[in-house]
Amino acid sequence: MKKIIFIIPPSVELLDLAGPVQVFTEAKFYGFETSIEFYSFQADTVSAVGLPFGKIENYKKAKLQENDFIFIPGIHFESLQRHISTEKEFFKWLAECSKRKINICSVCNAAFVLGEAGLLDNKECTTHWRRIDLLQTLYPKTKVLTDVLFAKSGNIYTSAGISAGIDLALSILEELTDPLFVNKVARGLVVYHRRSSKHTQQSIYLDYRNHINPKIHQAQDFLIENIASEISIEKLGAIVNMSPRNLSRVFKDTTEITIVEYLTKLRIEKAKTLKNNPEFTIEYIASECGYKSARQLQRILKSATENEK
Fold it and tell me: Does residue 197 register a pLDDT over 50?
């Protein structure tokens, strides 16, 4: 079972901590198997807004294996500047963890912690926009990206300010599971699944879901789960308790594509996935994607390929 630990530093920014924690907690609700643990520099820790924490184990007691994750949330900047000069032992521990192929993740200005540990050398990274220039100045061997929500370089992950930690956690969760699962988690959190320029590959299971209309989400879920079936607008409308005309209008207004266009994209995506299995015939793939013949599927795939050029 993969372990994800959070290091809670003094003067931690609450959302930097709570956002990523909630992503993985929500994932556990949907069946993702992981162990979430919390550690700190000090026995007594107080957040940046003065909220105290209970007793937290020292980070040295964490038992980590290759490919586990360490998250370090952002810190009130004045406090961060003090700890950079006093936590040399922690920086050494982080560097050792990285050498053991443990993934190290920073949220917001915790990128400076990674910089002090020497983990940003020759790496692309990012941080809160207020600290971009300072990060580049203090750690000139790194390449600080200015226009992304998060960056990955090897086993080092960094994210921009505050809520971008949620985006980073969702991206990591997608690496560990699949886009459809992440969509469920993002919806459970009522957040959009945003992606940076470093994460540009499109996914039909995530695209066109940047809305909070529950009936349209219900319709999209039904389409995803019943791709092989013959689905009429009338049947779909009855399922979500909307008239066919109103459903068509609201779906287009909400997603900016029609129901037929969305269903076609779903079927193309599934067909491309199934084609990776050499044991599946084109006829079988066509039937699993809701097409009446292999010729019909091949025509749709050819058109989609031409449109991508």
Answer: no
